[in-house]
Design goal:
Keywords: Isomerase, Magnesium, Metal-binding. It is built from twelve helices and 14 strands. By secondary structure, the chain is an alpha/beta fold. The strands form three sheets. An eight-stranded parallel β-sheet has the order 5-6-7-8-9-10-11-12. Strands 1-2-3 form a three-stranded antiparallel β-sheet. α1 packs across α4 and α6 runs parallel beside α7.
Length: 327
Amino acid sequence: MARVLSVNAERFPIAGTFTISRGSKTEAEVIVCTISDGNFLGRGECVPYKRYGETMEGVRDAIEAIAPAIAAGMDRKALIGAMPAGAARNAVDCALWDLEAKKSGNPVWRDLSQTPPTSLETAYTLSLGTPEAMAAQARENADRPLLKVKIGGNNDIARIRAVTEAAPNSRIILDANEGWTDENIRENLAAAAELGIALIEQPLPVGKDAILRHVPHLVPLCADESVHGADDLEKLAGLYDAINIKLDKAGGLTAALTLRDRAKDLGFSIMVGCMVGTSLAMAPAVLLAQGADFVDLDGPLLLARDRAPGLIYRGSEVSPPDAALWG
């Protein structure tokens, strides 16, 4: 029987409001790709991202357009050449991984490693707000070992100081989402170093990265929006110390594995991150993140409700996925 691909758009409410330098949202809009061979079914979830020109409708259309090729037997390797990197390819790629695992009875992790996956410590994200509001968020989560703090505007030093004082025992990642400028980056980096920040993501807008070659890296700098695939890495050498790999950017687990391995070869530290999605989107990323230097897979923790079955979170510790969820 030919494989059948289907696509569904789903929405999950966020617990409160999630705010970054580019705006706020109150729900996670995701697309689920399902591929069935009549006996087994594989699923993959993606999160279309407006920053990269993606829409729910456009991603759905792109997935549906590849359905005839999937029905004819297209594999993951051929998929990389047939679709560009992005959310649509991620959903299809992860659905193919899941289908292969269900058919063979061989879990995905066995294809990736000689040892079973372990639980990981994930960052927990604090939304952008006033210094006072962010300090309140930090106090509520001061028992978490790793916090990721959204910044990227005026008064960021006050925000950083407020959070570090409210959660003195937590390691802290700052995520500027391209919100700093060449006028304030040196001052902001100096403050971050003084306050013991562990990592700073994407301080400057894409295209302004060259400035980082002439700025002392008082805190390690991590590329996010500036890196999508392995082809981006060479030009980032010497500008960033780490890269943030997201399945939706890379276009699936298959491409993300290549990106991770090439980045390691070039000496980058590895962070595995996510968009705000459900456990189905996080599951393959948990396997990718085994051995990563930083893990930011807290999407389901930011939702008012997750899908069931979901990943098991114990505080900031996330367990590997069960086969009933994915892989």
